[in-house]
């Protein structure tokens, strides 16, 4: 059966997006499992902050710190554990966002050290002059939350 031109274009677009998703998943899988675990906690925190949801952040940050310590210094700087501990001690959304900034900078460096390309996106907020990681190219700003959710520039 011959598809109309628009049908062929849509079929190719869906195939390309599916392949892109598979490549991103493969990129994430190339990271050591302990690093993937740390990033799962981090991405959960990023999503919570972007949604202006403070309640789950301290527990996720404590779990992230525990994962970093379990991974060992050869995979992730133990400074990341200390930064996650600071985030776990945050008392409100504002202090959590402030503690999230150095944690983000360190994990961006961790991904660079592991030569990870493609599975995670680095985004920069010009209003806060701070970067973060996320899994999607759709900006979801953890520093400004619902006030300005799409404020950010995708860096990679």
How would you explain this protein's 3D organization?
It is a single chain. This protein has helices spanning 5-29, 33-50, 57-71, 79-88, 93-113; strands at residues 121-125, 130-134, 153-154. By secondary structure, it is mostly helical. The protein has a domain at 31-118. It has a 3-stranded antiparallel β-sheet. The longest helix is centred in the first third of the chain and has 25 residues, at 5-29. It is globular.
- Helical region count? 5
User: Which residues form runs of ≥5 with pLDDT under 50?
Assistant: 7-27
Structural class assignment: mainly alpha
- Helical fraction equals 55-70%
Distance between the termini: 40 Å
What number is the mean pLDDT? 85
Organism: mine drainage metagenome
Domain DUF3347: 38-111
Pfam families: DUF3347 (PF11827)
Protein name: DUF3347 domain-containing protein
